[in-house]
Amino acid sequence: MRAQFVLSEIGVGLRRNLTMTFAVIVSVALSLALFGGSLLMRQQVSTMKGYWYDKVNVSIFLCGKNDVSSDPACAKGAATEDQKKQIKSDLSKMDLVEKVQFETADEAYKHYKEQFGGTPVAGSVTADQMQESFRIKLKDPTKYKVISSAFADRAGVQSVQDQRSTLEGLFNLLNGMNYAALGVMLLMLIVALMLIVNTVRVSAFSRRRETGIMRLVGASSFYIQMPFIMEAAFAGLLGAGFACVLLVCGQYFLVNNWLVHHVTVIQFIGWDAVLAKLPLVLAIGLLMPAVAAFAALRKYLKV
Is 75 in contact with 68 (CB distance < 8 Å)? Predict the structure, then answer.
């Protein structure tokens, strides 16, 4: 097959269907940008889970003197020294517990002042209103329910709280956004495939005389179909290239130059994660239109 002839046919096809080709490039670019963004979002959520789950603790809050009359769980009275020693002893014997730290009411009040000292509500809380607690670091944060079932109903224990549960809402929101992006990506992908098929049909119809002559002189089906397939692949590759540019710009401008400086509590993924996704985006952008064009040609180009 002469490469010059194939390249010339590709140029002719792209010029004849310039508007539809542009639409294919834009739709492929948007769908693949959403695809790459969804993959990065999923990796970001996994990174955040690993980062935060490694830092969260399980807290066993003990009954204080102020809780006896206000909380049914503390109806038997405030936690005694013997109860505190027994809880600490039982925690130290559990294999899943990595570290146990006892926090007094004064220490809890100090931490509260450090965290909320500049807010209007800081002055409404006093040291005697704070609770004593055990801060437990687990080897596997997902096994919080073992601690809860073992200590929630004990005398002197007001409640057992897993800090991990406070993060679930955020992770569920991020996962929901990721699924929404995947849904939009699938819709855009369907649109792109329909545009590719229609573009190939129009291109094949506009060159039906040339393909008829080639068929009469004995050209093979592959030889006739190759320019159409390469046109679609070239348009898809351009769209994938624009998608890669969008992903790189998103990482540089949105993440590195804005989010990193304004959202300091999140560990964002780096360039290695973004660059690892670009070859996949380019491969899909090249192969997807080529396969769609090949399938369309078998139906609409009778050779």
Answer: yes
